[in-house]
């Protein structure tokens, strides 16, 4: 028993050191309201940000791609696919911008980058290399809270919980990065093309601190041969 506890302690300790996930992906292999990856940050405030990720799914229903909540806003920063309205949504401090007409095909990788800053209040969503218009969402106040909870796999309907299997992500996700500033269009294009881009200074896929809950696997990213 003591040995088991020691082992568990070691496993937890290992999980706390950053891991280089270059060339890897998280696989979310089943629909559940339990599986997620929690991404650690010690940041407590964002007055601007850029979040990028690549995902691969065949879901034909609503699902969250990236969910950050604070104690006052469950949708502090959320990227969500709304199947009914066929729109990609960016929620910031519980306000949302909707983007229709994205070619969100199943069974292929899609790259999404979203930028927002509190000064202008404008959000912009890049999808597979193409920018959206810049829409007003919410300005003036930053996204803040002493306990930011960032997750992929589940959408937080309340702070750190309120999961709905019917909004869960099923598929693969890779290259999750977060910056506390707005990336230039040129940098975003480099991310989209998977060329040499600057890694996130808040979340860095090459040095990621995270915790896995339930069945999520770390696997080599499957690419097609060229
Ligand atoms: C990550 O967050 C979890 C949950 O709050 C915590 O238990 C863990 O110690 C954190 N890891 C690091 C490296 O900060
Ligand atoms: C991201 O992680 C890599 C690998 O540890 C490191 O070389 C790089 O400096 C990090 N970048 C940032 C912006 O933190």
Automatic annotation (TrEMBL):
Gene3D superfamilies xref list: 2.60.120.200
GO MF terms, alphabetically ordered: metal ion binding
InterPro entries: ConA-like_dom_sf, Pentraxin_domain, PTX_dom
Any Gene Ontology CC annotation: extracellular region
Cofactor note: Binds 2 calcium ions per subunit.
The UniProt record lists the keyword Signal: yes
Cofactor(s) recorded in Swiss-Prot or TrEMBL: Ca(2+)
Domain annotation Pentraxin (PTX): ranges: 22-225
Assembly: Homopentamer. Pentaxin (or pentraxin) have a discoid arrangement of 5 non-covalently bound subunits.
Protein name: Pentraxin family member
Native species: Larimichthys crocea (Large yellow croaker)
């Amino acid at each position: 028993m003591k040995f088991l506890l020691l082992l568990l302690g070691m496993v937890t300790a290992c999980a706390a050191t950053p891991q280089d996930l270059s060339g890897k992906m998280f696989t979310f292999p089943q629909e559940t309201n339990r599986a997620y990856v929690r991404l650690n940050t010690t940041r407590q405030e964002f007055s601007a940000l850029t979040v990028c990720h690549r995902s691969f799914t065949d879901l034909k229903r609503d699902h969250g791609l990236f969910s950050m909540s604070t104690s006052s806003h469950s949708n502090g920063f959320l990227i969500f696919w709304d199947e009914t309205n066929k729109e990609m949504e960016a929620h910031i401090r519980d306000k949302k911008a909707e983007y229709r007409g994205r070619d969100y095909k199943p069974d292929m990788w899609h790259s999404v980058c979203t930028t927002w800053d509190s000064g202008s209040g404008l959000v912009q969503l890049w999808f597979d290399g193409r920018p959206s218009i810049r829409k007003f969402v919410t300005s003036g106040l930053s996204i803040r809270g002493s306990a930011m909870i960032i997750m992929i796999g589940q959408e937080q309907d309340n702070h750190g919980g309120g999961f709905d299997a019917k909004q869960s992500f099923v598929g693969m996700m890779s290259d999750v990065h977060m910056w506390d500033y707005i990336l230039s269009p040129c940098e975003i294009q480099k991310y989209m093309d998977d060329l040499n881009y600057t890694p996130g200074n808040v979340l860095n896929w090459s040095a990621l601190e995270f915790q896995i809950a339930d069945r999520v696997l770390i696997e080599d990213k499957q690419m097609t041969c060229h």
